[in-house]
Amino acid sequence: MSGPRYSIIHGEAATDPRLKGKALQVLCMLGRHTDRGGWCSRSQVKMAEQLQCARSTVQAAIAILVECGYVQQQERFHPNNGKRSHEYRVLLDDKRPAEFINSLDDYDDDEDDVTIDPASPHAGIPASPMPPQNRHGDAGPEPASNRTIPSNNDLEREARAPLGSGSEIRRKLDAGAERAALAEVARADEAFMSQFRQWPKQDTDNIVRSHGSWLRLSAADRVAASAAVPVFIAKLRIDRAHCRFFTFIEERKWLDLASKTGGVSPAGVPLPIEPGTDLWWAVFWRRWKAGERVKFMFEQAFPLGGQARQGIGVSANAVPKQDEVAALVTIAVRDAAGNQTAEFHAWADRMAQDSLFRFNANDLRMPFIKVPSQWPSDLAQTVTRAG
């Protein structure tokens, strides 16, 4: 590719306070790879590597850009290999300086490295208000609208519509201002915010949609949903899953939770944690440091012979949070030669002092485990043992 590279995005994005986190950077990266129609195919994995962040961060940024009306996202199915990929359209102003557009552009594969078909489904779809043309700059027939972004109401449709000119731009900006005002109303609703603040990644969630869904609940449903929030969040941590707050409300997830657990109280029916997982080790070491006997818990998780492994059940408010899990250290059980590592040997000796003689490489059958510190001696002053 020859010539200088520009990032072609809408100018309002530079000062839009709604673009939090990596949203503006992701928009700029997409803007570097658009064709004349505003479309590009850019791997989320590659963008995450360039921005030195997790792919989930890029996905959250794209969700914000779609919601704010700067990007249109479309899924493509490739019949030749059965894979799916995503393409993005950077929505632009009514004028695009021709000198900023390269006539030839390269296309990156999406996250599953799918080759883009020469006959793109976007052929003939213009970037408003450019004349119809395909990716290679050739004129094409006038297409039907390709906007497939779902909208719940007129306000969202206005906010997500591409910017045009004159009164269209003003309506777009007014819609953004109205959404900002609705967000302030949501933040002033303490009953709503007391639940919303608990939600994982709530800083990238749709507070306006969440608040609207919350207001549509009956008083009884709000009470039931509020009681289920900490339990549902704990289960998300156990399942390593993610769910937006408005999805929890609109799909009435607390009802599914009640049918599976039999209750939604944070101190109610225990939630199961699989043996040997990071959460299991966090609970194991928490109990050990508190002086509780953990021999039975260990032997259930790592039984002799061909017996089934058993996890533990903990109440929702006792499920380890991310900071507790992150504080643990990963050590190898064996080295490359198949011998026990020095760190694991030290921990095995330490656990033998508590009569946990089966804390050994043969019974664990795991290549790595989580421990409170690399060496047991590092905890000598902090651990209190039961007499």
From TrEMBL:
<dbReference type="Pfam" id="PF13730">
    <property type="entry name" value="HTH_36"/>
</dbReference>
<feature type="compositionally biased region" description="Acidic residues">
    <location>
        <begin position="105"/>
        <end position="115"/>
    </location>
</feature>
<feature type="region of interest" description="Disordered">
    <location>
        <begin position="102"/>
        <end position="167"/>
    </location>
</feature>
<protein>
    <submittedName>
        <fullName>Helix-turn-helix domain-containing protein</fullName>
    </submittedName>
</protein>
